[in-house]
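Repro:
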Amino acid sequence: MPYAIRARRAVRETVSGLPREFWWLWTSTLVNRLGAFVATFMALYLTLDRGYSATYAGVVAALHGLGGVISSIGGGVLTDRLGRRPTLLIAQASTAVSVALLAFVRDPVAIAGVAFLVGMASNASRPAVQAMMADIVRPEDRVRAFSLNYWAINLGFAVSSMAAGFIAEVSYRAGFLIEAGMTMVCAVLVFLRLPESRPEQTAGTGEGGGTAGSSPGGPVSLGTVLRDGRFMGVVGLSFLVALIFQQGSVGLPVAMGAAGFSPAEYGLAIAVNGVLIVVLQIPVTRFIEHRDPRRLLVLSSVLAGYGFGLTAFAGSVWVIALTVCVWTLAEIVNAPTQTSLVVRLSPAHGRGRYQGMYTMSWSVAALVAPLLSGFVIDRFGAEWLWGACAVLGTVAGVGYGVLMRRLPQEKPAPAGPDVGVRPQPEVGAG
């Protein structure tokens, strides 16, 4: 009983103090991820249901990823120019329409083209979501907010993956239409419940003290972001870390298959990742929330690299599952800490572009990782891939340690649930 009381208190303290707008945004994220059918079953749809080759399925997946790379920057620019709310509306409505269209197109060229559009539309909302969270949540609560959002993403994806398997047995088209409907629900939530949160340009560089590449209150362009040396260094390190984490879905199944493990055994091992994130994200966040982000990023980078590196010595599915536990812990720490760091290094009126550039590092890693891991495994063997992960993790850890010296201090925002949100009475019910 005392444990249950402590658990309830921990949950209450974790979710308390965040603004109402955050929870509508969180709900939108959860609903969106609950309908994530395309990302999970695109390859099976093309090969099993439509009868296309694995090569064609790979091309379509690459085009889907390429669309995400392009829209990372485009979504960031729109987030700053049009505002967070219009960008979310456009991105989510476009995703719903393109996913619904994908359920009906049959020509292979048309399928590839629509998949590219789905990739663009679905990824365009990410900079807006992250920028809006930074706008409406107090600086001291941002790690907790980003962690809760990451938890919603993984919870929604875990549930949708299980449900999608049953839906696919009945009808792939039904799966696409369900995703389209749920994404449109997200768009409606945004329209009815979320006011615009974009700061006025005169607001300066934000709580973190600004960045090297921008002037207080001045305009922020993509050139400004690219000239911001420290931030682009963080983007580069983020790319290395993303390459490591991508191996859980691209390098690990290939290596396990080559070693004689069955798909079911891979499914068992990788399921540990989702379960641990859902179970541990909140308690781990309570532990790291007010700790030094530099140390957290150094630790999580090294832990990720060596977590995958240990896979070289794993001879059973249970030992592989233990290595998954190691790099999953790194993922739980890294994701909210790194997103919060991006906010800290970006000016308030340029958050969209900065978040877009950061999102692009993960999108590019998702494109590069399959090619890189396949080449290394075919040419040198899986052991070299896991060794490379350990090296990349070490490099990223050292890089974070160097780049984050003399990090600007955040100034706590005034207390109150509506920090950063400009009231707009014409938007739905409050």
